[in-house]
Amino acid sequence: MLGKLNHVAIAVPDLAKGTEVYRTMLGAEVSAPQAEPDHGVTVVFVMLPNTKIELLEPLGEASPIKAFLDKNPSGGIHHVCYEVEDILAARDHLKSQGARVLGDGNPKIGAHGKPVLFLHPKDFCGTLVELEQA
Ligand code: CO
């Protein structure tokens, strides 16, 4: 069912600092910041040959990553995103296996303009998992 690793998302308290770490210290190509008000984050994409890293900074008071950063003040891995061919078939399969899909269970349009779902970390080895229909 799982396809490629689409991205690893890292929550950071300071996007400019995070960008410098990846751009200057690690020598990676990093995009310009992109505000995603619908998702409560500002994001930069770190381009790697085989995948992407997304650095997420909270945007607005109701940001979904605010609680995570309260617990992890220097930042940390927030979620991993796997590609699937058919997100509804993947959801139905996972629900039939007893996995919990977050929200109302219906895919939303994610940061890349494609349908996404999030899966409960307690059902996936303690890691928040995003599925994206590739
Ligand atoms: Co993501």
Order of helices and strands: EHEEEEHEHEEE
CATH C-level: Alpha Beta
- Can you tell me the number of structural domains? 1
CATH topology: 2,3-Dihydroxybiphenyl 1,2-Dioxygenase, domain 1
Largest sheet: 9 strands, mixed
Distance between the termini: 12 Å
Tell how many strands the DSSP assignment holds. 9
Category by helix and strand content: alpha+beta
CATH superfamily: 2,3-Dihydroxybiphenyl 1,2-Dioxygenase, domain 1
Alpha carbon gyration radius: 15 Å
In one word, what is the shape?
globular
Ions and ligands? cobalt (II) ion
Counting DSSP H or I runs of 4 or more residues, the number of helices is 3
- Contiguous low-pLDDT stretches (5 residues minimum) are none
**DSSP strand (E) fraction?**
35-45%
What does this 3D model show about the protein?
- Helices cover 20% and strands 35% of the residues.
- It is of the alpha+beta class and 134 residues long.
- The chain is globular, with a radius of gyration of 15 Å.
- It has helices at 15-25, 66-71, 87-96; strands spanning 5-11, 29-30, 34-36, 41-47, 52-58, 76-84, 108-109, 115-119, 129-133.
- It has one domain (2-133): 2,3-Dihydroxybiphenyl 1,2-Dioxygenase, domain 1.
- 25% of the residues are buried.
Walk me through the topology:
Layout: E1 5-11, H1 15-25, E2 29-30, E3 34-36, E4 41-47, E5 52-58, H2 66-71, E6 76-84, H3 87-96, E7 108-109, E8 115-119, E9 129-133
Parallel strand pairs: 1-5, 6-9
Antiparallel strand pairs: 1-6, 2-4, 3-4, 4-5, 7-8, 8-9
The structure holds cobalt (II) ion (CO).
Residues 7, 9, 54, 79, 81, 130 line the site of cobalt (II) ion.
